Amino acid sequence: MGVGDRAVLGGFARGWQEIDSISPNNEDEKARREAALTSLTEELSSITNCESLVVLAGSGTSLGIVDNKGKRLAPSMGDLWTDVYMLQSFGKVEETLTPGPVASKNLEHVLSDAQARLALDPVNTALSEFVSEAEGIIWTKCSFVDRNTDLVSHELFLRKVARRSTRLQRAQVFTTNYDLAFEAAAKNARFNVIDGFGFGGETFDGGSFDLDYVQRRPHEPLTLDPSVFHLLKLHGSVNWNLEDEEVQKVCGSMKPDNPVLIYPSATKYQLSYQQPYLEFMSRFQMALRQPDVGLLVVGFGFNDDHLTAPIKAALRANIGLRAAFVSPGIRTSGASGTFKEIEQLIMKGDRRLTLLEATFDQLVELLPDVPPREEREVHAERFSTPGRRP
C-alpha cells in the first residue's frame, strides 16, 4: 500500500480492494474502487447508527496530531524508548535487566522486567529511580495538548460519531490514550463530556455515567442535548491524581503528585481490574454485549490482552455486533495476529466485520456526513476564539 492509499476488506468485497482514485483510463478498476468505497460508506453509516455505538481509540488516533511546522506531537512507543534509553538511571540498571527486551527496544517488556525486579527488591534505589524517571518521561511526553493544539480531525470525528439521534444510546468512546485530545476537541466542538467526574466535578464517581444533559426551554418539554458522549479512559489520564484513595482531576498543566496511569508493562492486565479502571472495563464488556451494537476500533494494534479478550468474545458470541477495525498497518508483517483472525472470519463470510487499512485522519474523511448543526452551536462558533478552525 502506497503512502496515503486506503484499502478495505468486508462482506461487500471479494478480497482486499483499494479505494483511492486512480487514472480514469482504467475504467473497470475505477468502477470496482468506487463500488467498494460506496459499500464501505454504507457500512460505516450502519455501524454509527446502531442502537449502541462503541469506539475504541488507540494510540494511532493521536499520532496524526502535529504542530504548526508539521512535527508530530504525540509520542510513539519508539519515541518513548529512545528517551528512556538515554536516561542515566537506565545506564545504571541496564546490565541487571534481561537482555532480550533491551535488545529488541521493547519499552513495555523492559519496564515489566524492572518492576518485577523492584517488587522482589523494594530497597533497590537504582531500579526505583529508573522506574520513576521512565514513568515521568511517559507522563511528560503525553502531556502535549494545549489550547493551541490543532485537533480538527478529532473535532470532526466527534461531530460525525458522537452527535447522534437522542433516540439512540450515547456514543461511548473508550481510549487507551493518556493525552487530552478528546477532551480538548470536545471543548472546541462544544460537546458535553460524561467522563465519570460528574458535571464539572473533580472527583471520580462511576455512578455519574448514569447522569445526562438535557435542554430546558420555556413552555417546552425537556429534551436530551444531542451533543453529548461518554469518554472512558481505560489506562488513565495525564490530569488525574490519586489523593486519599480518590481519583481527582488536576487543573492546568501541573503534574499530579500521584498520577493515575496504567503504564506500558505486564501489569496492565492486573491493574485494569482495580478502580477506576474496573468501572471502565465493566462498561466496555457490557457495551459489547448489547443486542444492536456498532464497534469502531481505530488506531489500536491489539497489543493489550485485557482489551483484546472481550472484543474476541463479542465477535464469537454477539450476532448483533457490527464492527470496523481501522489501522494503517493491518497487512504488515508486524501486525497483530488478531487482524489475521478477523480477516479469516470475513473471508469465511462474516458480513458483520470490516477491515479498513487507513489512518485515523483518513477514516474521519470516510465517515458519513456531519448531521446538521443546531443554530445554538453555529451561533456559539461566531464568538469562538479567533483563528480556531470550526
What's the helix and strand layout?
Elements lengths: L6 E4 L6 E2 L8 H22 L3 E6 L19 H9 L2 H6 L5 H5 L3 H14 L4 H17 L10 H10 L10 E4 L5 H9 L2 E3 L19 E2 L7 E2 L3 E6 L2 E8 L2 E4 L9 E3 L6 H4 L5 H12 L4 E6 L6 H13 L3 E6 L10 H11 L5 E5 L2 H7 L8 H8 L8
Parallel strand pairs: 3-4, 3-12, 4-8, 5-8, 12-13, 13-14
Antiparallel strand pairs: 1-2, 1-14, 6-7, 9-10, 9-11
Helix pairs in contact: 5-6, 7-8, 10-11
Sketch the topology as an H/E string, one letter per element: EEHEHHHHHHEHEEEEEEEHHEHEHEHH
The computed structural class is: alpha/beta
Question: How far is the first residue's CA from the last residue's CA?
Answer: 32 Å
Query: Tell me about the biggest sheet?
Result: 9 strands, mixed
| Rg on CA atoms, Å | 22 Å
Extract low-pLDDT stretches.
none
Helix run count = 14
Strand content: 15-25%
Basic shape: globular
Rounded mean pLDDT is 90
- As a percent range, the share of helical residues equals 25-40%
Number of strands: 14
The neighbouring-strand order within the major sheet is 2-1-14-13-12-3-4-8-5
What does this structure look like?
With 390 residues, the chain is α/β, with parallel strands linked by helices. The protein contains 14 helices and 14 strands. The strands form three sheets. Strands 2-1-14-13-12-3-4-8-5 form a nine-stranded mixed beta sheet, with helices on both faces. A hairpin with a 2-residue loop joins strand 9 (236-243) and strand 10. Helix 5 (107-120) runs antiparallel to helix 6 (125-141) and helix 7 crosses helix 8 (181-189). The protein is globular and about 65 Å long. The relative contact order is 0.16. The mean pLDDT is 90.
